[in-house]
From TrEMBL:
Xref: SUPFAM superfamilies: LDH C-terminal domain-like, NAD(P)-binding Rossmann-fold domains
EC class (word): oxidoreductase
Annotated ranges, domain Lactate/malate dehydrogenase C-terminal: 114-262
Protein name in the entry: malate dehydrogenase
An annotated Gene Ontology molecular function: L-malate dehydrogenase (NAD+) activity
GO biological process, one term: malate metabolic process
Family: Belongs to the LDH/MDH superfamily. MDH type 2 family.
Keywords: NAD, Oxidoreductase
Upper classification of the organism: unclassified sequences, metagenomes, ecological metagenomes
Pfam family, one: Ldh_1_C
Length: 263
C-alpha cells in the first residue's frame, strides 16, 4: 500500500546491507499488479491483523478483499512457473481466497505455511528426548494453521521408530506437547509483544527451498495445500498434509496409518 512505501524502503536497505551474493536487484511496488509482474515465487506475507474488539467475520472480510486482489493480480501478471506461499493469517483461508481468484493458475501452485508449526514440533521433541533435531524425521502438521492443528507423533520417526512410542508418555503428548505447539505463536506474542518474525521468515525459506529443490530422501514436510480428498479432507479445501516435493511439485503422502488418538 502507498502509505507503507517508506517502511518498505527501509526493508530494502537492510536487504542490501546483508550483501547476499545472489541478490542482484530490488524493485519496490505499492500496487499488486506491479509487484507480481513476471513473479516466479510470491510470498504473500501482508494481511490484516485482528485488533481489539474485531470479530472474526470482520477479519475475514478485510483479508478477503486483500487476497482477492492479490489472486487476481497474480493471475494477470505472474510468470507461468509461479509458486505461491501464503504466510499472512488466517493463512489457510487467505490461500483459498487467492487461489480461487486466480483461475488460470493451477491449484497445485498455491500453498499456505505450516512449516513454522512443523519446526516448532520438531524442536519440542528434541528438547523432550535431549537429541539433535536432525534425528527426527517425518513430522506432520495436520489441518489448519491455528490452535486446531494436530502435530502427529504417531507417524513421526527416530531411527524408524515412532516418536510416540519412544516417548511413551500420553500425558505429555496430550497436555504439554500438543498445546505448546498449538499455542506457541500466542506465547511468543505474550513474551515479546509482537508475533513471530525471524522464526516465521526462516520457516518460509525452508518451505520454498524444499518445494523448489526437493525434500530429503526418506522424509517429508508439512505444507497446507489444496486437498484432493485424501484422509477425508474435503476436496478443494486448503489443509496441511505431509508432502514430498520434487521438480518443483508437491505430492501428498498417502496411506499413512492413524492411531485412535490421532483420529
Amino acid at each position: 500500500i502507498p502509505s507503507a512505501i517508506g517502511a518498505l524502503e527501509g526493508v530494502a536497505m537492510e536487504l542490501d546491507d546483508c550483501a547476499f551474493p545472489l541478490l542482484q536487484e530490488i524493485e519496490l511496488a505499492d500496487q499488486a499488479e506491479n509487484a507480481f509482474d513476471g513473479a516466479n515465487i510470491a510470498l504473500l506475507v501482508g494481511s490484516r491483523p485482528r485488533s481489539k474488539g474485531m470479530e472474526r467475520k470482520d477479519l475475514l472480510e478485510a483479508n478477503g478483499k486483500i487476497f482477492t486482489g492479490q489472486g487476481k493480480a497474480l493471475n494477470a501478471k505472474a510468470a507461468e512457473d509461479l509458486r505461491v506461499l501464503v504466510v499472512g493469517n488466517p493463512a489457510n483461508t487467505n490461500c483459498l481466497i487467492a487461489m480461487n481468484n486466480a483461475p488460470d493458475i493451477p491449484n497445485q501452485r498455491f500453498s499456505a505455511m505450516t512449516r513454522l508449526d512443523h519446526n516448532r514440533a520438531i524442536t519440542q521433541v528434541a528438547h523432550k528426548l535431549e537429541i539433535s533435531k536432525t534425528e527426527i524425521t517425518k513430522m506432520t502438521i495436520w489441518g489448519n494453521h491455528s490452535a486446531t492443528q494436530y502435530p502427529d507423533l504417531f507417524n513421526c520417526k527416530i531411527s524408524d521408530k515412532s516418536v510416540a512410542e519412544v516417548i511413551d508418555d500420553q500425558n505429555w503428548l496430550e497436555n504439554t506437547f500438543i498445546p505448546s505447539v498449538q499455542q506457541r505463536g500466542a506465547t511468543i506474542i505474550e513474551a515479546r509483544g509482537a508475533s513471530s518474525a525471524a522464526s516465521a521468515a526462516n520457516a518460509a525459506i525452508d518451505h520454498v527451498r524444499d518445494w523448489i529443490d526437493a525434500t530429503s530422501e526418506n522424509d517429508w514436510v508439512s505444507m497446507a495445500v489444496c486437498s484432493d480428498g485424501s484422509y477425508g479432507v474435503e476436496e478443494g479445501l486448503i489443509s496441511s498434509f505431509p508432502v514430498t516435493c520434487s521438480n518443483g511439485d508437491w505430492e501428498i503422502v498417502t496411506d499413512l496409518e492413524m492411531d485412535d488418538f490421532s483420529k
